[in-house]
Amino acid sequence: MKLEALELRRIGIPLIAPFRTSFGTETARDVLLVRAVSPDSEGWGECVAMSEPLYSSEYVDMAQHVIVHHLAPRLLATGDLTAALVANVLAPVKGHPMAKAALETAVLDAELRATSTPLSAYLGAVRAEVDSGVSVGIMGSIPELLDAVTTYLDQGYMRIKLKIEPGWDVAPVRAVRERFGDELLLQVDANTAYTLADAPHLAKLDPFDLLLIEQPLPEDDVRGHAQLAKQITTPVCLDESIESARDAAAAIAIGACAVINIKPGRVGGYLEARRVHDVCTANGVPVWCGGMLETGIGRAANVALAALPGFVLPGDTSASDRYFEEDITEPFVLHDGRLRVPDGTGIGVTPIAEILKARTTWTETLT
Fold first, then answer.
1. Per the confidence metrics, is the pTM higher than 0.90?
2. Strand, coil or helix: 79
């Protein structure tokens, strides 16, 4: 395809309720969207970088800057472009996987729409719907947490993930397990909040039969995760540490993880996410799809990815109303604990024009 233009758009969208993790509290999303325009089609991508560099070194202002000044010019100068070429074209610019992922997704969406191909079919999906889990932020009290979990279970979510940090870990997990029983699929996410010295404390989570503990140690301490895995029985899952299929292979080889959370923005796009999936599947390591408080644009692509065969655990592919009163696309709705995989061409959704216009805070078209 010939890429004629890239439209960048910032939107502001409030969250229904504050979402607190070990690295901060989100009350709204400042989202950078990318629209790729070709003579025959257009496609959308969402940059999942947050407003501040807390989850990763990337943040929205940085992503906007690097796309405008370094990434977009390279893509626009490429004559015959395909999504499979985007990573190589952008490779001279070091880092910035979330910005690169947004561009690659927009190009891929346009390419697939031009050939009337759904993203799910292109990636190799084997399911028409995916089991949905929900991520529960750090609360002000255990009664508040129990009320939140009750609400999500009543809505039909199949798995509960609790955000944890030092001082908010064993007690809330115990309370949830005691209230809802051993049948509840339950896991925890530390977002790098602990060190290897905390292993004896983290072992106190072992009796609660958790699906996994996600990213307990800093992202650069893969060896530490391997050591931790020998000291606890709860399966260790890596998130922030995995930025590529090569990272996944290395972590698996040293026993640093028994499960991997795949976030397409973190690994540079859906094509690399599929490669991570393939590495894990080849090594018998289950995967699941993480979330970054995406709008319907990012959620649609995540649901398509989560329908691949190796995604055997419920992901953070929650319904739109988990986070937003009003999404920028037709909302994703929970049906019997599952979300339907979009079957339209490309990612299968487009923004609703009037909502997009009302939420837009900045836009620029690059040619």
1. yes
2. coil
CB 256 within 8 A of CB 223: yes
pLDDT value of residue 310: 97
What is the Cα–Cα distance from 359 to 326, expressed in whole angstroms? Answer: 10
Interacting residues of 183 by C-beta distance below 8 A, sequence separation 6+: none
The tokens 């905390």 sit on which residue? 198
Q: In this structure, are residues 58 and 98 in contact, taking their beta carbons and an 8 Å threshold?
A: yes
Amino acid in position 75: L
Residue 284 lies in a domain: yes
Q: What is the rounded distance in angstroms from the CA atom of residue 178 to the CA atom of residue 162?
A: 15
94, 240: one domain = no
345 inside domain = no
Quote the number of domains for the chain.
2
Residue 160: which domain range?
120-340
**How many residues are given for the chain?**
367
Residue 222: which CATH number?
A: 3.20.20.120
48 and 183 together in one domain: no
pLDDT tens-digit map of 60-93 = 999 999 999 999 999 999 989 999 999 999 999 9
Residues annotated as part of the active site: 163, 263
Same structural domain, 138 and 188: yes
Closest CA to 350 of 106, 115, 125, 11: 106
Give the pairing of strands 24-37 and 42-47: antiparallel
The answer, yes or no, to whether residue 23 has pLDDT greater than 80, is no
Residue (of 191, 193, 250) closest to 226 by Cα position: 250
